[in-house]
Amino acid sequence: MKFDDALEINSALAIYAHPDDNEWNSGGTIASWVRQGVEVNLVLVTNGASGSSDPEMTREKLKEIRMVEQRQAADVLGVKEVVMLGFEDGYLYPDLELRKAVAREIRRFRPDVVLTHSTERLMADFYANHPDHIAVGEVVLRSINPDASSGLMFPELWKEEGFEPFLPNAVFIGTFGFGPVFTDITETVDQKIEALKHHRSQVQSPDEIEVVPHPSHQRRVTMEQRTGLTLPLQQFFPAPAYVDIAARAEELGYDSAWIPEVAGPDAFSLMTAIAARTKRILLASGVIPVQIRTPVVYAFSAATVDAFAPGRVILGLGTSSPIIVGKWHGLPYEQPLATLREATQVIRGVLAMQKTDFSGARYSSHGFRMPLLPQRIPIYFGALNDKMLRLAGEIADGVLMNWVPAHAIPEKIKQVRAGAEAAGRDPDEVDIACYVRTCVADDPAPTREHLRRELTGYVPVPTYRNQFLTAGYTDEVTRALGRWEAGDRKGAVAEIPDRMVEEINALGSPEVCRTRLQAFRDAGVSHLIVAPWSAGQDPAAEVATTVDTFAPNR
């Protein structure tokens, strides 16, 4: 089964603390994978003997009951083998005995992927994770590296029992609520429920279990509800101010905070600082020129941020321009699409802890394996024109549009979907994100003039100019380009009409801005990103007003 471009799954091993943990955590996923030909085995660490408040129940009796229940539930899901290690329920500690036992099973089954518990103590800010879950999650991560993968750890497993060292390709760590990776279990949710019903000793009224849509599922299905915020780096606030804005955005219910990298703060440093102040909001680099770091550096930079904000990182990459890459950084600007394609392939492999063995036209990397194991990090492409949009549909998790009017978006989405379909992907899996520069102000004229100058500066850049031309601004852009090339910068600015500025951005009263933003949603944008902008007398106040006005929680 092809999970994504970097991961093929033929076998999986679920390692959980108690009987029924597997069914609650990943029952639907496992049933789905089994249907697709994946061999799934299950290791349960404890005997489940503490899971009853019945004064007549004994630990020995409950242990036997739960063993039977678990095997019945596993049969429903299609699990091939169930191993119960027999540690006492409620008394787990990640000591050497437990680490060795788990490492033995990983070496024995040799799975492509492992599924297990999160090590977080408090999940989703309200659910206290079971100590046994934390212990098993910790032991599994240690067993992946180094216990199961190193021949120098527990050498008796290899030399005496014949279980050679083994390193799985990926680990899936369970979360509570909204996570970075989703498996559509629409076709297998009934199997999940049927499996849960077999745990009659643990489930009150098991025959009444039903599916209730979770808000996180609703947010995934109705992606138009996703609202992000771009940090206004163009305002040149002190770097700590951007951390404050991102923390405020989380309080207000924004789904994501986007940190572009052009001439301001380093994106990964700022993302890490924000991670320390937040708990829920997604943190996205939006976007970084792919050419200015190596793919390996991108991978471990993103993984480092993920260590501070597990499951909350989006890696946004773009091909930038010859001016930024060539003149500013002194690097070659050649074959931008091929560069991005190759970089993405290397990055995904490194993030999956695969040893690099890549030789391409733009990059090569051999023999590197990253010691960090992040949660899955989605990769978004900044895309303007058809070829890049189709490439995003082919291999990216999302596409980020910029400086585009709402009326041009349907055609761009058509290109993304064409790329996805050509690659055999579901086009609906590709998130459609778009920056919309927004200013709520009684007098938006100063900001309108500032954005007019900004737009004019993009006219000489071929990729942006082509986008403006295909969006219907042919005469205006042609005249502006002519004046620009003649050295008449002021005349070039004057050729950009109010209509173009106002269709690409959202400026004015809250009602006017809300109508403009809704036009982008109606055009098919699934992840609307408000980009606060101000050229007024008090930029900080106007930015704060814009951020507050479109808060999802209000």
* Spatial strand sequence of the major β-sheet: 10-11-12-13-16-17-18-20
Number of strands: 20
The CATH superfamily of the largest domain appears as Luciferase-like domain
Would you tell me the overall average pLDDT?
92
The helical percent reads: 40-55%
CATH topology of the largest domain: TIM Barrel
- Counted up, domains total 2
Q: Class of the largest domain in CATH? A: Alpha Beta
Distance between the termini: 43 Å
Q: Determine Rg (CA atoms, Å).
A: 26 Å
Poorly predicted runs of 5 or more residues: 214-224
Task: Please explain how this structure is put together.
The protein has 2 domains: 2-215, Rossmann fold, CATH 3.40.50.10320; 217-440 and 507-549, Alpha-Beta Barrel (TIM Barrel). The protein has 21 helices and 20 strands. The model is unreliable at 214-224 (pLDDT under 50). The chain has an 8-stranded parallel β-barrel with strand order 10-11-12-13-16-17-18-20, surrounded by 6 helices. Strand 10 (226-230), helix 8 and strand 11 form a beta-alpha-beta unit. The protein starts with a strand and ends in a 5-residue tail after the last helix. The protein is α/β, with parallel strands linked by helices and 554 residues long.
Please render the helix and strand layout as text.
Blueprint: E1 2-4, E2 7-8, E3 11-16, H1 21-35, E4 39-46, H2 59-77, E5 81-87, H3 96-109, E6 113-116, E7 122-123, E8 127-128, H4 131-147, H5 155-159, E9 170-173, H6 189-197, H7 215-221, E10 226-230, H8 239-251, E11 256-259, H9 267-275, E12 282-289, H10 295-308, E13 313-318, H11 322-328, H12 336-351, E14 357-359, E15 364-366, E16 379-382, H13 386-395, E17 398-401, H14 409-422, E18 431-440, H15 445-458, H16 462-470, H17 474-485, H18 489-494, H19 498-504, E19 506-508, H20 510-522, E20 527-532, H21 539-549
Parallel strand pairs: 3-4, 3-6, 4-5, 6-9, 10-11, 10-20, 11-12, 12-13, 13-16, 16-17, 17-18, 18-19, 18-20
Antiparallel strand pairs: 1-2, 7-8, 14-15
Helix pairs in contact: 1-2, 1-6, 2-6, 3-4, 8-9, 9-10, 10-12, 13-14, 16-17
